[in-house]
Q: What sequence folds into this?
């Protein structure tokens, strides 16, 4: 069997897609690991994800000449079946459903019949040895930036979040952002150069606060409690199956649901405004953090 362009070009999509593939193999929906055709030129971290899943699929390059469903996939006759997921991000059926369900359905599985444990990101932790960062044990990891600017945490929200954690917790704080102030307990996380380092940053944390969904998926993979903020996407489309994740939805006014790409600067203004539902007062964030830390 061949799978075309499964599972996208981003780290988060790939983590979830490979979990769907792992579930399909575990449940016998696929008799053997498929050939997974991927577009060339993927970022190194995404390439590393597929290298870690080498037992789940034979990964090969999909020629750019066959990048969309409008172009024929000439080697199709070499395979008993071909699952075509080229350009799935533009498929209307992809929007408004949990991503794992979309991938499972294309792998000929009923998502509701898949056990909850197989809808989490269990495949990754068993195949990778995280490299922990140089940081005090028990830190809180803060991830205020995403691969998409629509999901970024505004700088003043990041500062408020760090200040609140300093006042209300005793642990070190490792942030991937750039705060406007310095403090001995606030440590800057250098960019990870390998997948093992990136996983180590997450796996070594006691808590994760993130707007970056890839880091949320990694938090689930390594069973780290996570507070996840969503603007353009409803939380259930990404974290429905994560028992240790507490989602917060900040829907922007006037934007279509599941917006994937910035169209104009007005889109960025709308997502920024969603972080300030009561104006500059961030009392809602303090209350959210308190409830999260006080959860059973």
A:
């Amino acid at each position: 069997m061949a799978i075309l362009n499964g599972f996208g070009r981003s780290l988060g999509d790939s983590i979830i897609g490979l979990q769907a593939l792992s579930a399909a193999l575990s449940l016998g929906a696929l008799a053997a690991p498929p050939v997974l055709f991927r577009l060339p030129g993927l970022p190194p971290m995404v390439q590393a994800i597929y290298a870690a899943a080498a037992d789940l699929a034979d990964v090969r390059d999909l020629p750019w000449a066959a990048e969309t469903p409008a172009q024929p996939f000439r080697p199709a006759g070499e395979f008993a079946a071909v699952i075509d997921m080229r350009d799935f991000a533009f498929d209307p059926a992809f929007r408004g459903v949990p991503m794992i369900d979309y991938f499972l359905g294309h792998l000929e599985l009923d998502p509701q019949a898949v056990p909850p444990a197989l809808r989490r990101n269990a495949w990754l932790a068993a195949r990778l040895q995280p490299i922990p960062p140089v940081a005090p044990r028990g830190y809180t990891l803060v991830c205020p930036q995403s691969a998409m600017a629509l999901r970024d945490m505004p700088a003043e929200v990041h500062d408020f979040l760090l200040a609140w954690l300093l006042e209300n917790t005793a642990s070190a704080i490792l942030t991937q952002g750039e705060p406007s102030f310095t403090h001995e307990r606030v440590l800057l996380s250098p960019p990870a150069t390998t997948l093992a380092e990136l996983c180590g940053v997450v796996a070594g944390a006691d808590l994760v606060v993130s707007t970056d969904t890839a880091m949320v998926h990694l938090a689930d993979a390594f069973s780290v409690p996570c507070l996840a903020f969503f603007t353009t996407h409803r939380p259930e489309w990404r974290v429905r199956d994560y028992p240790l994740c507490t989602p917060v939805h900040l829907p922007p006014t006037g934007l279509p649901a599941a917006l994937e790409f910035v169209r104009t600067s007005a889109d960025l203004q709308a997502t920024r405004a969603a972080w300030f539902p009561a104006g500059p007062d961030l009392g809602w964030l303090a209350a959210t953090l308190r409830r999260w830390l006080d959860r059973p």
Q: What stands out?
A: The mean pLDDT is 95. Residues 2-125 form one domain. Residues 11-26 form the longest helix (16 residues). The radius of gyration is 20 Å.
